[in-house]
Amino acid sequence: MTNIVPAVGEAAPDFTLPSTSGSAVALSALRGKNVLLAFFPLAFTSTCTKELCDMRDEWDEFATDDLVVVPISVDSTPTLKEFKAKYTFRSDFLSDFRRDVARLYGVLLEDRFYANRAYFLIDKAGILRWVHVEENPSQKRSNAELLEQINALRSEQAA
Predict the structure, then answer these.
(1) pTM over 0.70
(2) Stretch 90-108: mean pLDDT, rounded?
C-alpha cells in the first residue's frame, strides 16, 4: 500500500496524540492558529537532534502568538520526555507510537517503521498551505527555509 501525502489546499487530517505535557493534543483544538507539524524519525539521532536544537535556538522566531510548532515522532512518550529534558526543548512533543498519524499523513517508512522527516504548514482554518517530505530522512530543511514558508503565510494572512 502506498502512502498518500495530503496535498496543499486540502484540509489537514485531524488526529489526537499523547504529548510530553501529559495530556493528549488534538490538531482540531489548535484551529485559530497556524500549525507547523514537524515529523522527525527518532529522538536522540544525530540529524533529528540537530534539527530540533536548531529550532530551539531560534524558538522565538517559530513559536509566536499565531504559530504552534508540533514535533511528532514514533518514539514513546517517556523517551520524548527524556529527549525534551536533555536538550531543554521549549516545545512539547507528540508520540505517534502506533504510527497511525505517520500513515495518515503518508510519511511512514514502512520498511524502517518510523516516519520520514516531513513538514506540514497548516493555516488557522486547518488547510494545508505548504508540505515538504524529505527524499532522505537524513536530510533536513534549514530554519531559514521553514521561516520563509511561515512568514509567507503570515504575509498572506495580513494582506
Answers:
(1) yes
(2) 95
